[in-house]
Write a sequence for this structure.
């Protein structure tokens, strides 16, 4: 049984992850605070926080369709940005004071173009270009892009973005990463004190709440979980979830209901967010941020030349969490993740790690079929 403090904190995180405008954001807006939306983890929260803004990562998990967005996108565009844009057209993102769109792929570039030209009320828009090849030259290029972002924020919001303010924000976000790393570490045990589905809520809340309050609640949650007696649990298999998205509980809940457990993940809203921390010893905070995203954690398959880095991280997770098999998920029409998961499946198969690859829409329309395939996969792991 979870104690009351654990229930209360997880309940708050679950509520936040299940909506867009949460009570903390409402209070922030009433107090005159400003919220900056962003589309991808490659957009540094640190620079927005240093500018006095509340970063809020876009998601479309509350969407009930893409009818409005389909006037701007084709059906072979990824359904994640289509659902996000549909919510925007419904006015669900009118609380944003600005939006940063990362140039991660063509569809996301279309998001920027359509958001700029469409009938939306977001006052300020910025497109942050990112390199699509790893390496020191590209890290320097990204540093220059971050400098342009910094300059734009200073002008747009009439703030002074000093190096000291950016370092302060880096330390704050590093604290978040360290707490999340400790939370994930609890899942290494034979009897994890928190479910994978609850961790999804914790991680989504982390990109939807002010960092100071989130860190305080997460620290309390960790202390309570570590002090709580854990009942012996018997799982049929320990699974690693890999792929895009990761802001819903669909696959983790299915696995748990079938007697398995997702002990770790390598997803865009999950474990990728807390991989290591940004070194705080550099003279230049922008270069430190650029090196982190382009050299240390080039986890998006849209970054070429870094597959071996990504594969090694997955192999490390398999060893540390004693993984029996992995489930790879990709959104339909995403060629980058299609190639990535195919390569991982072949390479991990050679290491004796079986895998299941699921192609799905952001809001699934065939959950029964997914559950059947996951059940069959768990059966093979059990046998």
């Amino acid at each position: 049984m979870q104690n009351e403090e654990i229930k209360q904190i997880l309940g708050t995180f679950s509520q936040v992850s299940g909506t867009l405008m949460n009570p903390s954001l409402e209070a922030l807006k009433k107090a005159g605070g400003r919220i900056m939306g962003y589309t991808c983890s490659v957009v540094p929260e640190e620079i927005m926080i240093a500018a006095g803004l509340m970063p809020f990562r876009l998601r479309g998990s509350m969407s009930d369709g893409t009818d409005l967005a389909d006037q701007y996108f084709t059906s072979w565009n990824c359904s994640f940005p289509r659902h996000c844009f549909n919510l925007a057209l419904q006015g669900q993102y009118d609380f944003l004071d600005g939006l940063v769109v990362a140039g991660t792929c063509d569809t996301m570039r279309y998001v920027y173009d359509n958001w700029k030209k469409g009938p939306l009320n977001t006052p300020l828009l910025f497109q942050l270009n990112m390199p699509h090849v790893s390496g020191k030259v590209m890290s320097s290029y990204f540093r220059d892009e971050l400098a342009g972002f910094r300059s734009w924020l200073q002008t747009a919001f009439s703030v002074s973005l000093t190096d000291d303010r950016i370092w302060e924000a880096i330390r704050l976000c590093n604290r978040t990463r360290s707490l999340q790393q400790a939370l994930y570490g609890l899942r290494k045990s034979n009897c994890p004190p928190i479910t994978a589905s609850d961790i999804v809520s914790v991680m989504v809340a982390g990109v939807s709440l002010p960092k100071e309050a989130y860190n305080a609640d997460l620290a309390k949650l960790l202390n309570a979980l570590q002090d709580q007696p854990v009942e012996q649990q018997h799982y049929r298999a320990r699974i690693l979830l890999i792929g895009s998205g990761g802001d819903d509980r669909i696959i983790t809940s299915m696995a748990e209901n079938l007697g398995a457990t997702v002990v770790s993940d390598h997803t865009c809203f999950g474990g990728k967010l807390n991989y290591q921390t940004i070194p705080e010893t550099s003279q230049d905070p922008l270069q430190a941020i650029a090196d982190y995203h382009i050299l240390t954690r080039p986890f998006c398959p849209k970054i070429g030349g870094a597959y071996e880095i990504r594969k090694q991280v997955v192999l490390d997770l398999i060893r540390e969490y004693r993984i029996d098999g992995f489930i790879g998920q990709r959104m339909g029409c995403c060629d980058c993740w299609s190639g990535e998961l195919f390569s991982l499946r072949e390479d991990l198969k050679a290491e004796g790690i079986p895998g299941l690859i699921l192609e799905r829409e952001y809001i699934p329309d065939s959950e029964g079929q997914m559950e059947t395939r996951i059940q069959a996969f768990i059966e093979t792991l059990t046998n």
Residues 184 and 264 are 7 Å apart (CA to CA). The two ends are 31 Å apart (CA to CA). The first strand starts at residue 34 and ends at 38. Strands lie at 34-38, 53-57, 98-103, 125-129, 238-243, 261-267, 325-331, 355-360.
